[in-house]
Amino acid sequence: MFEKIQYWRIVRHPTGWFQATLPARRCILNRTSFPYALVAATALTSVACASEDYTKLYHTEALAPGWSWDDVRSMDNMGPVLVDDGLNVVVYSERAERIELLLFDDPESELPTWQAEMVQDPDGGPLWSLYVEGVGLGQHYGYIAWGPNWPYDSDWFPGSTIGYLTDVDRYGNRFNPNKLLFDPWGKAIHRDHDWFAGSTASGPGRHQSTWRAASKTVVVEMDYAWSDQENEWRNARANNTLEGHDWTDLVVYEVHPKGFTRNPASGVEWPGTWRGIGEKAAYLQDLGITAVELLPIHEKPLDGGYWGYNNLNFFAPEHSFSASYQATGRVDDVLDEFRWMVDQLHQHDIEVIIDVVYNHTGEGGLWRERLYFENWDQAYEVNFDPKETAGLYSYRGLDNAAWYALPP
Questions:
Q1: N or C: which end of the chain has fewer CB within 10 A?
Q2: What is the mean pLDDT of residues 85-101?
């Protein structure tokens, strides 16, 4: 039997008010592992853990206890990894001067439940890591980052411009700690950005905090077990023993992941979803289709258009196309549903080809403004891009010059 012991701390809010932040640290103790010690701090009394037989919630280290920096430098463990009774996150940034991890128990909260500074590779490399004990599946999180155009200042607080120098410097840096950034290697985000709660824009919107508005990365795990037929199909495909599957023989059917079954006439139980496509596997086989090419499957911004060519996260299938998400409002099973769809198509001898876009992202270009000449004899519209205004969802805020090919 376990009991959660709550630690509290008192911090001074930048406005001058004092507030209690909860939790600062918690220990999960086995009742049989007492004793424990009482520790008095200021006017509050907290319970401290004296036994080693517990998980120290929010205890942090640079790396998971079983890892070395070589495990990070291999880049085989990017993003969120569940390991050693906790979560290790690794992110890439060449020019950041400070990156912090923010954990949200309530993803719609203005402030995180907990946050801490990440640790850069001691050899000065571009990888940043942090291990947090006791954190697991379902955790929502994001990053904030400082750099040359916005150096870290300990007096800074969300919604302020303390430390700000410029929205973008001569090297293309666009760091802004007011903008919460999702993990580029995350497997799921909890929803689209909430524009009513805050803008991703720099420039005039540089002071707006998106800590509540932003899409948070969610720690998920794939539980789907591939069928025996799937394993047999993969072996046959690898050995080139599948009839009619040479590139010159394939009959390819291109479909929009949502549009293919969105109309009730499709006859599927879950129209417009990954599951809906899987339900149509037998129908596609009857048509003689041997490969389905899916238009972009990855997460896209809310205003990313119908066709999906403005991808935001290249490891997370679009959650709004998930029957599980539509039924529960949760993203835990989106990946499993996608795998089930692939399994169903393979069982009907249909390959899956994914249309991907890597030469741009849904963060978009610079924000456009319009000027109109008043001289109607020479009336024409002029567009210009104010260089200071751009959207920061993830990559641009982590290291604009590293993630994007910038003009000289």
A1: C
A2: 98
